[in-house]
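Narrative of activities, Objective 1.

The group set out to show that a structural description can be obtained from nothing but a protein's sequence at a throughput compatible with the screening campaign. Below is one input-output pair from the validation batch, recorded exactly as produced.
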Amino acid sequence: PSPSAKQAMYGQISLSNRYNSDLGSSLKELLAKQNNIATENILIGAGSTEMLDLVLRFAAQKKGNIILPEPSYTYWAEAALFLGLQRISVPLTKEKKISLSALLKKINPGSRLIYICNPNNPTGTVCENAGLISFIKEASKKTMVVVDEAYIDYSGEPSVCDLVKENKNLAVVRTFSKIHGLAGARVGYLMAHTTSIEKISRLQSWPNGSTSVASLAGAMASLKDEVFIPESRQKNEAAKKLTVTELEKMGLHPIPSFSNF
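Output recorded for this entry:
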């Protein structure tokens, strides 16, 4: 974590006898300003995995299926079967990219959710922004679309979160676990239309309340740190370039990555 984030977390330890309501609201205000949306478009939780879990349970209120690229970050979706949802897997292209057209073709009347991890984990490939926006507009007419932007800060691609202001069938998930270096602190958030946030938050026993005061303080300090994030991105690019160069010297051919791996 950034030095300022660690200092902020240390400073909140003595206040751990208090619940996190004030800090949660403050973090939502910062996130809303940064992403040009309203605080009502945001739900905070213990990492993006909790947010994905909530969306999955929201989708499972009606039985049907979820559509996922394969391979991708689908550990959170293991619970789908127990929730009564069938999983439909769609293979990546030969270039190890998510095929948006193939995903569209799999949508059927029973589809409740379609998931895009962008950049994708574990391949590091990215969906080009214009194509992704077109996909979201088309797919969301028929089912809920979830875009996982855990690695967006490394990609150079713009977020699609602006679309949630109008699109009731889009959810965008982010985390502080990657470029902010706060994986163990467990801070993530969901951005969606106000009506969707209102409904999904009912599945969280305490909306916005599952993250500690120390974690929230660290997340806010990291957001305000104008040096750490660019530095993290720069160091990651340097390490990635070194790794790719050495692998190529060995005769291997790494997939071009837009993530931190």
